Amino acid sequence: MPADVWPQPILDLLATGEDRPVFEDGPVVTTASEMAGLIRRIAAGLRSSGAGPGVGVTLDLPVTAAAFAATMAAFAVGARVSGWRADLSPAQLSGSLIVDSAQLASLAEHPDNGLPLVAAGRAEDPARITWTSGSTGTPKGVVQTYAAMSAAWVPYPDRWPPAIAELATRMQRYLVFGSLASQVMLEYGVLALAAGGTLVVAPRPVFPDALVEHQATASVITVGKLHQLIRDQRANPVDLRHLGALMVSGSPLAPGRLAEALDVLGPVIFHGYGQTETSMIAMVTPAEMLTNPATLATVGRPAVDVSIRDGEVYVRTPTQASSYWQDPDESAEVFVDGWVRTRDLGELDADGYLRLLGRARDVIIVNAQLVHAGPVERALAADATVGEAYVVGCPDEMTGEAVHAFVVPVAGRTPDPDMLRKLVAAQVNDLAVPRTVTVVDRVPLAPSGKPDKSRLAQLRDDP
User: Is this model's pTM higher than 0.85 or not?
Assistant: First the structure.
């Protein structure tokens, strides 16, 4: 293995960072040298507990400096690292060493020999299993090897794609919350450290309060929470002058909604596209969107190899996952000849920007014909009275499934369901016309922050 096997770049950065603050949790600030020592002690404790190459370590920890150290230490000893989920079966945990807060405190008491820590991961061993939300069934464990994680550009400034290089200048105080097992949270956290920034804990990640309280310059935000932040800023604006970047994840934004976000929040929106299986695929910057409004309808220029096959986006990158844990059938379906099927529909425009057109599997089967949710949602969202639009499929005795729409109105406006149905018929087709159009004040969100379509379906108006 090369000297820079993951997480060696982070171990080296911390070992030479001295008194630079790298983690802030309320009044407690952890310096680079303190973090490096904590990682060494926890790594020693993990080794004494039997952890090492090929051994599973499952972390059941809140977001703290010690939890970050434990994550890096587990990688450093070459373990197979994952985050705890209550819905994981014993087979999925597969005999892992489970580390909770009490055990972590014990691990951190091991003596520090002060010697440089050398990453022990083996190239083809699984380094990380990231569990998907399970919104479409049983959670899938996305497996990324040490070779893949070692190929990542995130900790190396000279390898950053242009959009990331611009984002990195705004990562002085990156807000961390939820779980460090989240690929997005950890990936941007590593970026912040490589850019010279500090990870700042938000115990209550309510926006805009957390942004103001912690004077955050950057944060991840889901589409649903972004819509709510915009509404709150319009109704009761707070001072967000310190904010430099909001990285939008979860689902694509309609061009009008992106333009509104830039107008209300300023040039801070970075609209990214990626998957657990691939990490970041593309990103469009505020400067690009403000300079060229056509890019509002895209997710930016891909930073990885992209191939469009029968309308579906395939991705290839050295950092991609290799399989799903203990699921050979699904692995064979998604990981094809060195490429990852994203299950997203898309196209590349003449300037190389990627435009997403919907989910290949976000479909409603009406009279045995597929209706993709994306085009219907975009047609509804194009109406001036609609702030957000989502559609779901529900069982129907006549057609198998029927389309049901849910819209959040623009403040002071009242959507007309009949006009919205006509709009869908004109822009999509008659098959896609919603059976019902339900006006809701806010869209229920899943724990991931994404719209919870199963709960939406329960709110529909009777036909």
Answer: no
